Amino acid sequence: MAIEMVERNLVLTRRYDAPPDVVFRAWTEPEQMKHWWGPHGWSIPLSEADLRPGGAFRYAMRSPEGHEHMVEGTIGEIDPPRRIVTVSELGGDGNHPPIRVVTAVTFEEQGGATLVTVDTTVSGSGEWFDAATEGMDQHWGEHMERLGDYLSTFAGKE
User: Fold this and answer.
1) Is pTM, for the whole model, over 0.70?
2) Is 66 exposed, middle or buried (0-12, 13-18, 19+ CB in 10 A)?
3) What's the pLDDT band for 158 if we cut at 50, 70, 90?
4) In terms of CATH, what superfamily is 6-153?
5) Where in the chain does DSSP place strands (E)?
6) pLDDT tens digits for range 83-136
7) Domain segments of the chain: what residues?
8) H or E element that contains 127
9) Residue 14 to residues 47, 61, 90, 102, 126: CA-CA distances in angstroms?
């Protein structure tokens, strides 16, 4: 019996009142990412990245209840401060079939502000795929909202 692969794509765009280099650094620098990444109420106790093509990244997301979720992957492409592409895999641990996540983020200058476009494609199969992608739209929206909050209070003041 063949397993049918499913693909889900989400594209979100948001404008931030900060120049692309500031927004790009907030998105890619592990210490800055700890201040804003994740859905509301989540924290990032660990964030590491080797910001070069083929470089690895990993971060731990901690839920409000204290559950940790580790995300690991590679940098597929990086062109500061215009674009970064990451590739990660969830599952594949014997308990769940693997789910591949490819996320391309572009940072477009707009008169001193930055238009950020997130284009993420998730591919996988089965109930685990459905559970892993449930709420994806809401979670990405919360990531982007928290980035806006962070940029208005922290960015450029390091």
Assistant:
1) yes
2) exposed
3) very low
4) START domain (3.30.530.20)
5) 6-16, 43-49, 56-62, 68-79, 83-90, 99-110, 113-124
6) 999 999 877 666 777 889 999 999 999 999 999 999 999 998 877 677 778 888
7) 6-153
8) helix 126-133
9) 23, 23, 26, 19, 31
